[in-house]
What does this fold into?
Amino acid sequence: NAGVTQTPKFQVLKTGQSMTLQCAQDMNHEYMSWYRQDPGMGLRLIHYSVGAGITDQGEVPNGYNVSRSTTEDFPLRLLSAAPSQTSVYFCASRTALKEKLFFGSGTQLSVL
Amino acid sequence: GESVGLHLPTLSVQEGDNSIINCAYSNSASDYFIWYKQESGKGPQFIIDIRSNMDKRQGQRVTVLLNKTVKHLSLQIAATQPGDSAVYFCAEKGAGTASKLTFGTGTRLQVTL
It folds into this structure.
């Protein structure tokens, strides 16, 4: 199994540009989520989904959109990138009944 | 709000020695705790977890201890190896399906030869 796959691994954007971070999992997990990781801070939840067609906001949702059209995919969209969104982004998934999250390898995003 | 924190940013341990990484939590209602290992440039990897109805849980070379009285969690790594060098962080979750994992900031473990 590939587990949780994230693309791209690195991305540089200019302020105001848009882009989509891709996330796919092949474990048939109901729950998927996006986190950002910044120096000196713990992982912070951006958005999450408990199943296809259902999404909800996490701790830091502003500036990000998500959708969940299939069980496997959970893309994260930045509509108008800002320097404050420079971070490492992790996608994670788990089953509905377990708390253990499985993480992807991350996307390092720089917004200039 | 409640938060989870780690006491030390860096822990240096000699190869072969045991490592102890500590975590303090403040939410007395937390009922689930988990440790992750994160190597440079990689995503967090699950190490071990424990529920609040347990005090200790052992895995392969790792042991997690939970002291609910003082709200303290620790990860013990036996016979530390160079491959154990990474950032380790804990997370806690309150009771209920609506509760989410809250992550600590991490401790860097450096294994010296």
Q: What stands out?
A: The CA atoms of residues 56 and 65 of chain B lie 5 Å apart. Chain B has a mean pLDDT of 90. The longest strand of chain B covers residues 30-38. Chain B touches chain A through 21 residues (CB under 8 Å).
